[in-house]
Amino acid sequence: MDPLLSFAQSIGLPLYPEQSDKFRRFTDLLLTRNRSINLTALRDASALVKDFYMDALALLPIIARAEQCTVATLLTYRWRAADVGTGGGAPAIPLAIAWTRVHYTLIESIAKKARFLEEVKTALDLNIVVLNARAEDVGRQPSTRETFDLVTARAVAALPTLVELTLPLARVGGMAVFPKGPKVHDEVLAARAAIERLGGRLESVAPVALPDQEGERWVVVVRKVQSTPKAYPRRAGVPAKRPLLR
To answer: In what order do the strands lie in the sheet with 218-224?
Structure first.
């Protein structure tokens, strides 16, 4: 059986032939464009399946658990989601392929990467919007501030910075979800003050197991429990230079 299909079945995710075809077409696009644009360090299809697609789809059971529902039920939700620093597309593109009812806004500050994401949107007919912008700016705009049910970000920054880039986008009651590596517990400890100040509550730090996994993988879930103060996010670049550590 196809490894991606097998993994999807193991987490309760149905992947239909049209969706499997979109994953194959996305692979072709990503590997082709990666020759001229630094989109990912992964250089072959099998690595993309394991470390890009499965890694993204593994978020679904964790999100479903936070919502106290099954993956099948979650897939019926017509949520608004945002992804910060999408780059080559993880986790937003695999999630948008699998979760057809989600409306994803992809926030990418580098113009050539944003153009690639626009190409993917058109080629795969995905329910996404691409914003070539900084997350700090999007988080202050009335049309996008505190409007998303779900905010994701992968390999963008350490957690104290990441929560300032993402929590202003989440609605009260929504959540921010972050794939992380083996230093997750140190990051969570460092981010506690920022999470609280920005209106969040740490909900879970869940381990992830993937086939033939190398190294530890974790997912941090932060629930938005109150509105983010108007002072945040600070202007572009400041969250990374001066993270909220106390």
So the answer is: 128-131, 103-107, 80-84, 148-153, 170-180, 218-224, 200-207
pLDDT, averaged per 10 consecutive residues of the chain (246 residues), comes to: 90 96 96 88 84 94 97 98 96 98 97 97 97 98 98 92 97 97 96 97 95 88 98 96 92
User: What tokens were used for 174?
Assistant: 């929504």
**What distance in Å separates the CA atoms of residue 25 and residue 32, rounded to the nearest whole number?**
11
β-strands 170-180, 148-153 pairing: parallel
CATH code: domain 3-241 is 3.40.50.150
The one-character DSSP state at 49 is I
Q: In degrees rounded to 5, what are phi and psi of residue 176?
A: -115, 135
Residues 6+ apart with CB under 8 A from 238: 136
Domain extents in the chain: 3-241
Residues present in the chain in total: 246
The DSSP-derived string for 98-156 is H-TT-EEEEE--SHHHHHHHHHHHHHHT-SEEEE-S-HHHHTT-TTTTT-EEEEEE-SS
Q: What is the pLDDT of residue 1?
A: 54
How far is it, in rounded angstroms, from Cα 152 to Cα 63?
Answer: 11
Q: At which residue do the structure tokens 């230093």 appear?
A: 183
Could you tell me which residues are beta bridge partners of residue 81?
104, 150
* First vs last C-alpha separation in the chain: 50
Is the pTM higher than 0.70?
yes
